[in-house]
Amino acid sequence: MSASPAAKSSSDLQPSAAQLETFPNAYPGRDYIVEIECPEFTSVCPRTGQPDFGTITFRYIPDKLCVELKSLKLYLQRYRNVGIFYETLVNRLLDDFVAACKPRHCEVIAEFNPRGGMTTTVSAVYVASTEEEDEQETCPECEERPSRRRRVRKR
Fold first, then answer.
1. What's the pTM value of the predicted model, to 2 decimals?
2. How many CB atoms neighbour CB 62 within 10 A?
3. 45 given a catalytic annotation
4. Is 116 contained in some domain?
5. Which of 32, 60, 105, 127 is most buried, with most CB under 10 Å away?
6. How far apart are CA 53 and CA 40, in angstroms?
7. How far apart (Å, rounded) are the C-alpha atoms in residues 77 and 41?
8. What is the average per-residue pLDDT within 97-112?
């Protein structure tokens, strides 16, 4: 017989990257974007204890793994009673997501509903380095790390 949610310890109810399940990417040789929008996200303001409501969006380019949606939903629901600042939340979401599925690129965007007449949007980005970039970063002949520029497609 499993313990009821009320009987579980508080550490069992905390979100962690280990709760995010993955499955193999069927197209690991192709760059494509997966966008997941979670419009019913809730957490708690650590100063006032009032609930915060917002929309969390994950945009990622998978590598070998994709995130399983139900596990992501259950992971996000664990924030419901967590007192956390927006900036900390977004960076933690990104870190946990990257730890779970190791994407080529990932952006987490959190758009929070108005509180006190102000809205807040926080985003964080992860870009996996390539072997070529790693070699350039450690090259003793290079004085600086080469700048990363976004590739612009010509139409």
1. 0.78
2. 25
3. yes
4. yes
5. 60
6. 7
7. 7
8. 98
Q: Per the domain annotation, does 144 fall within a domain?
A: no
At 8, is the pLDDT very low, low, confident or very high (cuts 50, 70, 90)? low
Strand partners, 25: none
Choose, from 12, 38, 45, 101, the residue flagged as catalytic.
45
**Residue 40 C-alpha from the chain's centroid:** 16
C-alpha pair distances (Å), 11 with each of 32, 71, 99, 113? 36, 17, 19, 28
Residue among 147, 96, 102 nearest 128 (CA): 102
Q: Is 52 in the active site?
A: yes
Residue 153 placed within a domain:
no
Q: Where residue 154 falls among pLDDT bands split at 50, 70, 90? A: very low
Q: How many domains are contained in the chain?
A: 1
* For residues 138-145, average pLDDT: 44
Q: Which residue of the set 52, 66, 96, 101 is catalytic?
A: 52
